[in-house]
Design brief:
- The chain is built from 23 helices and no strands.
């Protein structure tokens, strides 16, 4: 199935341009909500206005959030479901919600699905990039989301191929492959055959690239620059060379649009994909410069994500050295302790800054609380997790951390109460998180000398995992103690 984009008249485009101009004026005067409404009205006239409409709207949404703008309420979010019969209307309703809550994956997914149903390939191409960039924020990677991204990128590639737009075809397939690589590496595929999905698209891409290299498309490509690129090839283009070409193309677009987040992030994605240390350094510098130039905090967030990743790799390298030592090396162990301390302090500072920028974002609060917990700052972590409890995404895990903080403080009765709440709300008993919850719950009962309750909890645990931690030892110890007491 391909796309048949709706015809947009010149008159509609002119009307849309006026809305966009008024929206920009409103945004410049910091009337962000009004600007968002104007952009949406303009996009209703010209839904394929990617740069002047969709991209500009997202930038205004981010500026609004950075200025303390509130997220949409329940009644506002219902506009999406009410627009289902009108795919373009549904897309714009979701996009308006996303503008007011720029990190919301649900709204981004609704926007992507509606753009597909609306048969708006250029808008879908942009929306997929936004959606894909938001996916890593989830604690547990959603393979279904990544599979959706891959399928839609493949569909886009097929559409571009029929249009003889070879560069865009290859780019779409490559982004689909990137999504599948991410899914495979997550190890969360379950019964899904992700390797086959990846292999099939990679084969499709390789065949097309082979035809590209042989020049089979020369007669059909109308773009003069693309034609010249094909004619200049004197040898086979290797994957590294193709990636280099894509990077240079993205660099040129980012240089021409240094304040457009989508252009800058596209370059960053490609630079980090190549995996060279110098590319990562360049990516961080580009993002830092963009942040200083525009004040858009999303650039700093991405730069800090790269810094976190770099520091975690450094810690893992030291951990590998420590593990490889036949006899303990005190100097190396101290080096590891120092590196871990630096990592913890940096991540704490980064997430503290983020919740100051996005004070209502419960996902960021949860991540900040987790780092406070890992730093053993339990009194500070508890109220942060309590703010995250109201978000269904973190309802169980936040309660687990609160309960564990109480346990570490020796407040065992309070730990039992909150951990029982977590158990009541959790459906996937027997998985890693439920084992952690039950273990701390059992330990809390044990500390209060509630032997029967502790044994009951531990018995559930060994039914799921006979070798879990020291549970068998604790059961033996408690049973022996029970005999003595009786």
């Amino acid at each position: 199935m391909s796309y048949n984009p709706p015809h947009i008249t010149d008159e509609a485009k002119k009307t849309a341009a006026k809305f966009f101009q008024h929206a920009q004026t409103a945004a410049d005067s910091r009337s962000f909500d009004y600007a968002i409404e104007l952009y949406v009205q303009g996009l209703a006239k010209d839904p394929e206005a990617v740069e002047k409409g969709h991209m500009a709207l997202r930038e205004v949404g981010i500026r609004r959030t950075n200025s303390g703008g509130k997220k949409p309420g329940l009644m506002e979010s219902l506009k999406i479901s009410k627009s289902k019969k009108d795919p373009i209307g549904a897309m714009l309703a979701a996009e308006m919600m996303l503008a007011k809550d720029p990190l919301n994956l649900k709204y981004a997914e609704e926007m992507v699905k509606a753009a597909d149903k609306s048969e708006l390939p250029e808008t879908l191409r942009w929306a997929l990039q936004v959606y894909f960039e938001l996916c890593p924020q989830e604690k547990k990677i959603s393979v279904q989301r990544l599979l959706l991204i891959k399928n839609l990128y493949e569909k886009l590639g097929d559409y571009y191929q029929k249009q003889d737009r070879l560069d865009q075809t290859l780019e779409a397939y490559e982004k689909g492959i990137g999504a599948m690589n991410y899914a495979v590496q997550s190890g969360q595929g379950g019964s899904l055959d992700l390797q086959s999905e990846l292999k099939n698209l990679a084969t499709k891409h390789a065949i097309l690239r082979g035809r590209y290299e042989r020049g089979d498309f020369r007669d059909s490509i109308k773009d003069a620059d693309a034609q010249k690129l094909l004619q200049d090839k004197s040898r086979q283009v290797k994957g590294e060379e193709l990636l280099t070409q894509l990077i240079e193309k993205a660099r040129a677009e980012a240089d021409a649009n240094p304040s457009v987040g989508a252009k800058v992030f596209a370059l960053i994605d490609l630079l980090t994909q190549r995996g060279k240390p110098e590319d990562e350094k360049e990516a961080i510098k580009i993002l830092d410069d963009a942040h200083q130039r525009t004040g858009q905090y999303s650039f700093k967030m991405r730069a800090d994500d790269l810094r976190i990743r770099h520091q975690r790799r450094a810690v893992k390298r030291i951990e590998a050295k420590v593990k490889a030592e036949a006899t303990p090396d005190p100097t190396l162990q101290q080096q590891l302790a120092d590196a871990r301390q630096q990592q913890a302090e940096r991540e704490l500072a980064i997430f503290k800054e983020r919740i100051e920028q996005y004070p209502t974002d419960t996902r960021l609060k949860f991540e900040y609380g987790r780092r406070l917990y890992e730093s053993k700052r339990y009194d500070e972590a508890i109220p942060v997790f309590q703010e995250a409890v109201g978000d269904p995404r973190h309802a169980v895990r936040a309660r687990y951390y609160i309960g564990t903080c109480f346990f570490q403080k020796g407040w065992h009765s309070q730990a039992i109460d909150i951990l029982n709440e977590a158990v009541e709300r959790y459906e996937t008993l027997g998985d890693a998180l439920s084992k952690e919850i039950f273990y701390v719950l059992g330990r809390s009962h044990e500390e209060l000398e509630q032997i029967d309750q502790a044994l009951k909890i531990y018995s559930r645990l060994i039914q799921w995992d006979f070798n879990y931690r020291d549970v068998r030892h604790r059961i033996d110890k408690l049973q022996a103690k029970k005999k003595i007491n009786s």
